[in-house]
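Hello again,

I reread your note about wanting to compare the complex against the isolated chains. To keep things tidy I'm splitting this into two emails, and this first one only covers the full assembly. Below are the input lines as submitted, including protein chains and any nucleic acid or small-molecule components. They are followed by the predicted structure of everything together. The single-chain runs will come separately.
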Amino acid sequence: MSNQSSDSVKRLQDLATMVSLAKRRGFVFQSSEIYGGLNSCWDYGPLGAQLKLNVKRAWWNSMVRRDDVVGLDAAILMHPTVWKASGHVDGFSDPLVDCKDCKTRFRADNTDSYINDKKCPNCGSKNLTEERKFNLMFKTHMGPTEDAGAVVYLRPETAQGHYVNYENILTSSRKKIPFGIAAIGKSFRNEITPGNFIFRTREFEQMEMQYFVKPGQDAEWYEKWREARWTFYKKIGIREENLRWKPHGPDELAHYAKAAVDVQYLFPFGWQELEGVHNRGDFDLTQHTKFSGKKLDYFEEATKERYVPYAIETAVGCDRLVLVVLCDAYREEISVDEESGKPDTRVVLGFHPDLAPVKAAVLPLSKKAELQGPSMKLRDELAQEFEVQYDDSQSIGKRYRRQDEIGTPYCITVDFETLNDQKVTIRHRDTMKQDRVALTEVSNYVAAGLRNFSK
Ligand code: GAP
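Full-complex prediction:
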């Protein structure tokens, strides 16, 4: 492999390539696949679960390691009046139309053939129902009775947990305004048109933060949070040319928002929303005061003023960010092998090392017992610090390629020379450069490399 340099690099062209890699390598599987799958539901396999955890950790640390943000883990099921107060019972719906001929059901507000000609997007028929409002919240019942009094909802956003805990957190954490609450958790929406793999699903995880500020300082904090979020994406290695801002026009604003802007990413299927930064004003706290009868305001010692704080929200889907990380990391390096003259493609997921599900792979050159001993010992030692894989099957070239395809930054080869010189070969994922390093130094070498990584 070392007698090769890449002549050209191809980025991800289509989502199908990623769906296939994700399944083949154990990142993401169709949910309940042995039963034919469940539409729009996905399971994270061994590498996907670790990748997702790393994405959450990166987001969580970027939030709660600040002095002015604290964490929260609120329940999915909440008092049903929360959703009355928040406006979701009355306002969280999409306009829906059915085709009476082919029975296709579609959204009226984002289907071009309907918007332009009032035609079915599937069969072109104009024999359509009126637009109806379809509420996106999943309903269920709490306890043994299924009457209307027992209705509860699966939360469609985590944000309401932040608002209903505002007072508890303010008093218990002794924070002063401005301060924020960050949470990661599952949300559910009965989307009419889910799709594009893990981009839009009915069950998903959100990473949301509400930052409470004095009215009048909201515009300034809205800008600061826009900047902080952009910096976060750069820090986790997302290529800036694939990110852009998309402000919401007045007719696109959610029912709670005074101002909103999306971070969009250039997916293989086009520019789409990744995250929303919203100025929610005092909408939510005021509504909860109205419906609960509990005052949710703030007394500012310094000025002796009492006010209802405004909330600046940052909201990103964890699954959607995992898709961004996968798409952005993918590259095919195409080269000609100098010995055989044959074209060759190396597929690499060039993850930022903080996100890489496996940090290092230990690869004994042969399955012989004399190499297995020191290799396993090295694996166990490294596993105390990082996620490590041990692989002793197939040729070393194939094993390198497998690790490249799952984005492992370092491959460590234990060979027969190791038995004499107590050294191993460490190969770098991105440059394929190889270094000979003493066994006792491997852990430090890898740790320093992960820390000092730059794209
Ligand atoms: N609390 C505000 C809120 O929920 P949103 O724009 O509806 O705002 C925030 O959602 C983020 O959650 C989106 O930018 C997206 O990343 C993610 N998200 C929303 N619906 C989703 C879905 N059906 N599947 C996957 N992610 C979703």
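For quick reference: Residues 150 and 162 are 24 Å apart (CA to CA).

B.
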